[in-house]
Amino acid sequence: MQTARSITVTAAASLTAVLGLGVLTSCGTAAGQGDDDYTGPPVNGGTLRVAFDADITCADGRQAGNNTALNVSRQITDSLTDQDPETGEIVPWLAESWDVSDDSTTFTFHLRDGVTFTDGTPFTAQPVKDNFEGIVDLGAKSSLGSTYLAAHFPGVNNTTVWADPDSGSHIEFAGFEHFARTAERGLFDFLFLAEGLRLREHKGQVFDQDVVGRPETATVLSALAAVTTHIGLTGTFNSTFNEPYDLARTLATLDRVSGGRAAWNVVTSHNAFTGANFRRGGYLDGADRYRRAADFVSLARTLWESHRGSDGSFDWHSDFFDVHGTFPVPETPQISPVIFQAGDSDEGRDFAARHAEVIFSAHTEAEDRKAFRTDIDQRLAAVGRRPDSLKIYPGISVILGDTEAEAQERYREVRRAQVHGPGAIAFLEQVWGRDLSGYDPDGPLPDVGPDLDNADITRGRVRHEKDYGAVARRWRALAEEKNLSIRELVTEVSGRGGTLIGTPAQVVAKFDDLTQQRDVDGFIVVPHITPGGLDEIVDRVVPELQDRGVYRTSYAGSTTLRDNLDLPAYNHSTSQEVSA
Amino acid sequence: MQTARSITVTAAASLTAVLGLGVLTSCGTAAGQGDDDYTGPPVNGGTLRVAFDADITCADGRQAGNNTALNVSRQITDSLTDQDPETGEIVPWLAESWDVSDDSTTFTFHLRDGVTFTDGTPFTAQPVKDNFEGIVDLGAKSSLGSTYLAAHFPGVNNTTVWADPDSGSHIEFAGFEHFARTAERGLFDFLFLAEGLRLREHKGQVFDQDVVGRPETATVLSALAAVTTHIGLTGTFNSTFNEPYDLARTLATLDRVSGGRAAWNVVTSHNAFTGANFRRGGYLDGADRYRRAADFVSLARTLWESHRGSDGSFDWHSDFFDVHGTFPVPETPQISPVIFQAGDSDEGRDFAARHAEVIFSAHTEAEDRKAFRTDIDQRLAAVGRRPDSLKIYPGISVILGDTEAEAQERYREVRRAQVHGPGAIAFLEQVWGRDLSGYDPDGPLPDVGPDLDNADITRGRVRHEKDYGAVARRWRALAEEKNLSIRELVTEVSGRGGTLIGTPAQVVAKFDDLTQQRDVDGFIVVPHITPGGLDEIVDRVVPELQDRGVYRTSYAGSTTLRDNLDLPAYNHSTSQEVSA
C-alpha cells in the first residue's frame, strides 16, 4: 500500500482513544499549572490539567513528532497500531494486522472493519493513503520533529575565546581528534571545518591578536575519517583557487576513506590578496565567481559519475575549464560528496537552490529564519527541486549554567573575553579605516570619522557590510543613544545571534521549540572553546534531548552522511537539470 | 671528548683480546667447514674453525656492525669497554672509567695507562679521537651495518598478482590500513605510495587486465597518519600538475597530523595525455620538467620555512611561479617533509643530488648498485653535499619458502601469475605498436615487425625505453637463442631484478650481505599481494634480522621520519645553496 518509515497516521475514527498517559508531574515553571491541589483518593470525572514544558506548536500529526505535540494530538486522532503499556509491544488498533516485506521497506496494513470517523464516514484505505502522501508533500516540514545537531570546529574568528585557560591548540591534530570524537559521541550529523587560505592582515601586519595559521582542511578531515565511524566530515574548499580535477580526486578519496561521509562547503572568492598566494591568474573578476563555482560543481559531479558511463572518460569545455580524460578514483559510497553552501548574497542563495544540499545559514533570529526558509523554498520551486532536498542548518552557540542566572553570568563573561580591549579597537579600525590605537577601548567612540578610502585596512577577512560610512553612522548613533564605550559598542554589534542561554533543560526546550517551527533542519553548534567546548553540550544537552524523545540514541542504520541528514539519494539527472 | 652514538673504537692495543666467543655451531651449508670431526675432551692449542653464514665483507670496525663482521674484527682490535659474559654488564677495558653527561649525549672516557699498540706506540686519546672522526668522515658508509626496510604499497603495475585469491582491494581504506599497520609492526622506516593521475589506456581503451583506478595519495596518507605512530608516510606527487602553494599546504598539514612523518616523492611529467585531465596549459615542454620541479621544491621549502622569518610572508618570482603572500600552516615537526626522488635519467640524478634526501632506486643488481652509488656520490660532491645526506633505497621483492626448493617453486608460480597470457600479449603490443591479439601467447614471437609510428599504443604508463625498434630486435634475438614463447620471453624480460628467494634464514643472510656492501642504505619491499603481502615478511624475516642483531627492535627515540632514516636535521641554508 505505502512505503513508509512511520506507521502513525492521523485518521480520526470513532474508536475512543485510550492513551495510557501514565502519571504526569507538572513542572514548576510551566504555564497552565492549576490552582487545584487535590490530595485525596482518586475520583471519576473532573478536570485533568497537564503541564507541558514546551510550546505545542502544531497539532497536525503529519508534522509534529515530539512528545509534547503527540500528547495533545493523540487526544483527537487514532493510529494504525497501539503500544501495550505493560510490555511495550506494538499491538493492533485501526489495523488488525500487517505484513512487512523481506527488505523491511514495504508495510501492508489490513484495516479493521466497521470503523467510522466522528461524522459517520466509513474508515477506508483512502484516508490512510492521503495522510501518508501528505507527509511526503510537506517536504522538509514533514520530518517528524527530531533535533539534528552538527559541530563547527572553532577557528580563526572573533567568537573563540583563546585567552580561556581551557583553550588548546587549533593546529595540533589531537585537538581535532578530540573534537571529532566528542561530536560523534554526541551522535552529531557532521562536523564542519572552515579553511584559511591566507593569514589575515591588519594595518599591514599579520593579525595575531588571537591565533595565526590553519592546517589544510582535506588533510585534517581524512585523518579524522580514520578515527571516526559515522560522523559526516564537511570541509570548506574554495572554487576560485582550486581546480576541479584536483579537488574532485581529493574529495572522492575522502568519501571512500570515510565510507561515504564527505561533504564540500563550496565557497567563492575573487580577492587578489588571497589569490596572490596561488598562481598566475589565480583570481577572478567578482562577477564571475559564482559562474565559475557552478561550472566547477557541475564538472566535479561529472567526474564523480564518470564511471557510470562505459570507461570513466569525461570531456568538458566551458568558459572556465577545458579538460578531458579519465577519472582514476572509482565510484564512491555517496557518488558525490554532500554539497554545502554558506554565502548569503543573492547569487549565493541561487547557487544553493541549484546545487547545494545543505545551507550553513547565518540567519539565527526567529523572523530571519522564517523569511530565509520561505525565500529558499521559492528558489527551489523555481528550479524544480523538492523542499526536502536542501537542508538549512544555522550556526548556534550554547551557554549552560546550573541555574538560568549562572548561565547568564557565564554569557556575560564569555562576551567580555570575546571582546577584549585591543580586539575592540581592531574591530572598530576595520570600519573606520584608521589607526585608532591611541583611543581608550573603555572610552567613547573616536572623534574622527571613518576614512572610507582605506577600507582595505584589514585583509583576508570576509567583509559582510558594503557601506562602511553607513555602518559608522549607525554605530555612533547607537553608542550615543545607550552611552556605550567602544568596547561596549563592539560587544553589542559583534555578538553571534541566537545564542541559547540557560540550564540544560531550558536549552533543550528551546532546541525542541526551534525544531518544531520547521524553519531549520538542524543546528551547527559553534563552541567558544577549542577543542573542548563541545564536551559540555554532548554531556549535558544531548542526554536531555534523548530523554525527550527528539534526538537519536544511535546512528542506527546510518552509514553515510546523506543517511545522517535524511537526504534523498544522490541523483545525477536532477542535479544536472537544475544546473543547466 | 666526543659526542658519539657508539662507543666501540678500533684502537688496536697490546692487550690480548679475550672475546668469550662461546660455542659456535657450524652451519651445514657454510663455506669453510673443516674436515676435522674431533669429538674427544677439550685440548689446548690446535685450530678452531668457525663457520659464518654470511660474507665478512669488511674488517674495518668503523664500517662493519653486524655480528659476523664483529666476530672477525674483534680478534684483531680492542674496544674501550667490554661486556661481562655472565651478567651482560658493560665493564672497563681500554677505558678505566667514563662519565656520561646529563643529557646522555657526551661520553668522556678515561683511558687506562701503560697500554701500547702492537708496534709499541703508546695508546693515547688521539687514536680514539681519530677513529670516532673517521666514522663521521665515512658518511653513509659509516652507519653500523643495520638493515633498513620500507614498504611499497602494491598498486597498478605488472608485479602485483591480482588473480591470487589472497589479493584484496587496492581502493578500500581497510587495505591501506592493514598494510600500514603491518609495516609499522615490522618497524619499517616508511611506506611508499605511488600516484595514479590518469587511467592507463591500451589500444584506445582503459587498460583493465588487472585493476583500474587509484585513490588520491595525500588523502590516503593522512588517514594512515591517524592510525599509525612511527612509520614514515611517503607520497608521490607530480611537480608538473600540482601547484606549490596547494601541495605545500597539504604536505605541511600531513607532516603536522603525523607528528613529522611526511615525505614527498617528487616526480615530473610532460605528457599531454595526463595533462588533459587537469587544466588549460597544465603540461610542460619535456625540457622544462626538471627545471620546474627544482623551482617547485625550492619554492615549497621557502613556504615551509616562511615562519622562520618575521611574519610568514614569502615572495617568489621565477619562470614558473609568480606568487607572494603568507603561508598559513605553522612550522611543522620536520619543517620540510623528506624529499624523495625516483627517476633514473641524467636530469633525475642531478635533481636528486641537489634536492632529494632519499632515492627510490631502480638498480637492484650488484654491479648496478655499486655504479649507481659511485655516480650519486660524485654528483653530491659536485654540489657540496655529504654522502650521508642522501639515502639510496632500491625496490626489492622477497619470495619465502620453508626450503629453498619450495621458495624457488613459489617464485616460478608467482612469475606465471604475473605474466598471464593476455598480459604477455599486451606487454608485447606496447613495444610492437600493433594489435597482436591474434597471436598465441604460448607460441613464437609475431612474424611481423614493430610499427614504430604507433608507439603511443599504450598511454599513461612510464616508458623506460626510448628505441622500441632496438628493443624488438633484442627480444627477437633472445627468443630465438633460447627458443622462447611470447609468454616465456615476457617472463624473462619483465621480471623485477634483485628478488630474494629462499628460506627466511637465507633471505636474512642476503639482506645482511647486501647491507654490508654499503651500496644501498635500505630496501623498499615490493610485495606481489595486496594488501597482505607484507605480513609474511614481517612475521618471518624481521624476527630473524633482529636475532642477528642487524635490525631495530623498537622505534626507540625515533619520532620523525628523518629520525627513522638517520638523516641530518633539515637545514635550509644547505638546501638553498645547492639548489642555486
From TrEMBL, chains A, B:
UniProt keyword terms in alphabetical order: Flavoprotein, FMN, Monooxygenase, Oxidoreductase, Signal
Entry similarity comment: Belongs to the NtaA/SnaA/DszA monooxygenase family.
Every Luciferase-like domain range: 163-516
Superkingdom of this protein's organism: Bacteria
Signal sequence annotation: 1-30
Residues annotated as domain Solute-binding protein family: 89-152
Entry protein name: FMN-dependent oxidoreductase, nitrilotriacetate monooxygenase family
Entry annotated with the keyword Oxidoreductase: yes
GO molecular function terms noted in the UniProt entry: monooxygenase activity; oxidoreductase activity, acting on paired donors, with incorporation or reduction of molecular oxygen
InterPro entries: Diverse_substr_monoxygenases, Luciferase-like_dom, Luciferase-like_sf, NTA_MOA, SBP_5_dom
